[in-house]
Design a protein that fits this description.
Elements (H helix, E strand, L loop, with lengths): L8 E4 L12 H15 L6 E4 L10 H11 L7 E4 L5 H16 L3 E7 L3 H12 L4 E7 L6 H19 L7 H10 L1
Helix pairs in contact: 3-4, 3-6, 4-5
Amino acid sequence: MNGDPPADALVVLGHRVEPDGRPGFELATRLARGLELLRAARAPLLVCSGGRDPDEPVSAAEAMLRVAAASGVDARRLVAASRPLTTLEEAITCSLELSRPRGWRRLILVTSDYHVPRAVAAFTLAHGPDVAIVAEPVSGPFGDPLLLARREADGLARLRTLAAGLAPGDAAGLLDRLHRT
């Protein structure tokens, strides 16, 4: 990855937040890698993505923003996407509200290694062929590998069913179908 051109943005995908508002282990691992890439000038912006589950005190995006700001990252380099609760919602929000209005053409997704295939598929579907989606996986003991693999395979199958017949990049169509299900 070090020889790749810089991206327009790093997108750290959300995960659980602790009851005290700190990023959970998996989210903290993703954020740490995103901050490393930001400091290495892999992109000028860090998108902190992820909504707030009912049992969480803050959104994943807010939890990440707090940590990034506390670590000295200039607020002008941080972007929040604090509404999406699923990977597909993150992809659609990023496409419609960030990538298209800002003319982004290359994104680096920072997510857990087991999550890469579904995350890249969702972002590719939402952004289409004009935006390069590059994954930056993080590893860790995130749970039972077989359970995670099964869950991700199910999610990828649901994504393919939802997107059937839509043109790549039809984020509005994906959003419409998502709201109908």
